[in-house]
């Protein structure tokens, strides 16, 4: 009989950079993954949903490896785990699916053993794995975060997203590996481009904190990564240049792409026009893509401790069905 509990976590997707804030700004979005974890006689995975197909179901699985990092840090041994996961976050599209998995596994493993590690410790561990704090910070804390990472420790401030904002993402069917999108970036940039981004990132952070939607378009401009990534996402240049003319307050590549994210005023009258513009521009470039309206997730990861029941699959799936219907 295990002395540890069974944990269930719900963890949001995220968008990173918000345009100029490369590796700095992140925001949690209303798309989710759910994970349950408990000690077992032997390691077993129950991975549900299209996004889980093809992921490893042995101890090389990221969830398992991340959980073991928590146990090692806490000085406990839980070598065999039962792990269930369902995710509605598309993989490799710039919506932070790997960051959600990392945060979900850290939070689930920590809760299972009585939460010996602080949120700040989990943030440092997640950033060390992901190498940048923007997606993991958003999934952990929710809302908008601005964060810095010194190689060992991450500091952040969380900003409550303005209530007037919603987000339209256009998600291309093709996948783009973050590593490939990072390889496209130059090793050095000019002082002019650095100043351009520092000023826009500062303005965007302040505008979001102050609810100044009128400044979002000016502030969401980038010269550090989007120009170099544009050739990897056909249609991106036109979308960045013209979406504001169709009702977007601002538009940016979501993380490393290929998804693009528009910030939109909830009261905007041209929402349908904007959706059509995004999908038609992708189509003109030979790319199938779908649009999804999202809200900010303000809670970040949420954690529950449950009765141990030997991980009955029905109860996990029933919970997911209930969540997806609500
Ligand atoms: N800040 C990261 C990037 C997010 O743009 O490469 C993707 O993981």
From TrEMBL:
GO molecular function: homoserine kinase activity
Protein's recorded name: Homoserine kinase
Positions that bind ATP: 90-100
Reactions catalysed, as given in the entry: L-homoserine + ATP = O-phospho-L-homoserine + ADP + H(+)
Its biological purpose: Catalyzes the ATP-dependent phosphorylation of L-homoserine to L-homoserine phosphate.
Gene it is expressed from: thrB
InterPro entries xref list: GHMP_kinase_C_dom, GHMP_kinase_C_sf, GHMP_kinase_N_dom, GHMP_knse_ATP-bd_CS, Homoserine_kinase, Ribosomal_Su5_D2-typ_SF, Ribsml_uS5_D2-typ_fold_subgr
Organism listed in the record: Paenibacillus silagei
Domain of life where this protein originates: Bacteria
ATP-binding as UniProt keyword: yes
PANTHER family with a match to the protein in the record: HOMOSERINE KINASE, HOMOSERINE/4-DIPHOSPHOCYTIDYL-2-C-METHYL-D-ERYTHRITOL KINASE
Enzyme category, top tier: transferase
Species lineage: Bacteria, Bacillati, Bacillota, Bacilli, Bacillales
Compartments reported by the entry: Cytoplasm
Domain GHMP kinase N-terminal: residue ranges: 61-143
Listed pathway(s): Amino-acid biosynthesis; L-threonine biosynthesis; L-threonine from L-aspartate: step 4/5
The keyword ATP-binding is assigned to this record: yes
